[in-house]
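Annotated sample (chain length 594).
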Amino acid sequence: MAEPLRDRARRATGWRLKSNGDVRPHYVVCGSDPLAYWVVRSLLATDPPAGRVRVTLVVPERRRSEGPDGRDLPGVQVVRADRLDEATFRSAGLAGADGLALLHQDDVGNMHAALCAQEVEPRLRLVVRMFNTSLANGVRQLFPDSAVLSDASISAPAFVAAALGELAPTHFRHAGRTLYVARRADVRPQDVVSGLAVTTDPELVRVLPADESSADVVLAEATGRPPGTELAARRLVRARRRRQPVAVLLRALRSFATRKIGVAVLVLLAVIAVLGWLNARAADVTWSEALYLTLVTTLSGQDPDVNKPLAAQVMQVVLNLAGLALIPLITAAVVDGIVNARLALHAGRIQPDRSGHVVVVGLGNIGTRVMAQLHDFGVEVVAIDKNPEARGAPLAHRLGVPLIIGDAGQEETLRAASVDTCQALVVVSTDDGINLRAALNARSLDPDLRVVLRLFDGDFAERIQQAFGIGISRSVSYLAAPAFAAAMLDRAVIATIPVDRHALLVTEVPVVAGSPLDGRPLAAVARPGEVRLLAHTRAGQKTEWSTDPRMVIHAGDRLTVVARRAGLTALLRETTPVPPPAPAGAPAPRQPDE
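Output written by the structure step:
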């Protein structure tokens, strides 16, 4: 019985003796994109220079994209290998490691790598990036101590909410209460649990302000009211239904035939109307009789009468000639409309003008999720992708979402999607250059268009905002990385709350005996701008949401907090005892790229 107890004690403190004498927890991360970069940064967010964890990053021999992938971060051991097999994992020191993150975008490849890793280290905490939910369920069954996450699922609600001009629809349940993010003006004062951010100035968003009453974005207890995103989607759908039928009919007629045929038909109808009016005046009949005589004369050419006045005979001949021209023009318009519809279906172009819809550029992992969520809300969506075999193309066809095949950076492609009359443009392709060109061209078509831009670099996003006024940008990897890092550390993140380009984490942190917070008051937990205490739970007791800041913290207590990533890292250091020194004569930790 002593051995399991000792193992549990080591797991509780988070430190265990390694075979090389290094007591730091060891984590292996496999990936070569921005998500791997941010996960590694989250794991390394500890006290310099000693560090509290050891991270090994497995990347391909050559970079596969221009963006950072973590190999240049200081304090990281880098293993270069193009194949994730048992030999690669052994060279990365996976035997005895505390966790493995498989972050490649290949679901099947990640599953194969997980099976190989199990051969090297059977008792391993496994975190896998997956898009396919069926495969994700299979991984959970094969590896009980695993977390299967999708960065697209984590970050997509933030893009959907930004497109509708609302807050991200974050809901979670904890300690018997259902909480959600809302604007302070939309909830009752008694339902507010905590202030989260001040967003009144888009250029200076402040999260977790010291004065909670100044926060206009709050965490509130749910009272049955739908979230803001759903309400915004309903308003958009109702607005589209209230569009004037005449305007809809005119747009349909404009899109049915080419401009030249339409102009010819309109001119001919105008000539017929004038001649019919003149004929009616000459014959001295009522309007209904004049309409009847005009239509019969135009379409059939009947009723010749040599006894009519010369002017009436001339008008009758002209009407007959107009009738001869009208029928071929009507036939040409019908044929032209059918041909245009078939060409649009084949080439992926959208001929009819649209308004009030949302255009999604890029049907990769995140674009597919955004498209599906908007469609579920009842919002009309038009998708653009340069690849007809994009990941989300089959789903778009199944949902009836129009898909335009073309370069979103070209103005013609954006016009085909009616970007100049859309509700919002969500640009989420993996190419920052295409994303920026699409956003700028769309703004040239409609200067007031709401553009939601996917950008990796926060500094670049701020400069774009200052230069072009595109203030809504999101980073998929930045929003999703905290959940992956927390899963690696075997700490479940209760919720991730995106606010502008910030990501707030709601998590429950246990206080370990001998940690710096053990014996200190609850007031020591809060740090303005970094950490805010939501609830406090004594061992074996109910969770207290209304806390006394003078109450003393004891080992075994659990702290429910909302924090930024750096603030959560600092709190974890204060709730964990200082690691024991390495045994004398133990080899020093290897340096990066050693």
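Annotation: Residues 138 and 365 are 20 Å apart (CA to CA).
Annotation: Confidence is low (pLDDT under 50) at residues 1-17, 347-351, 586-594.
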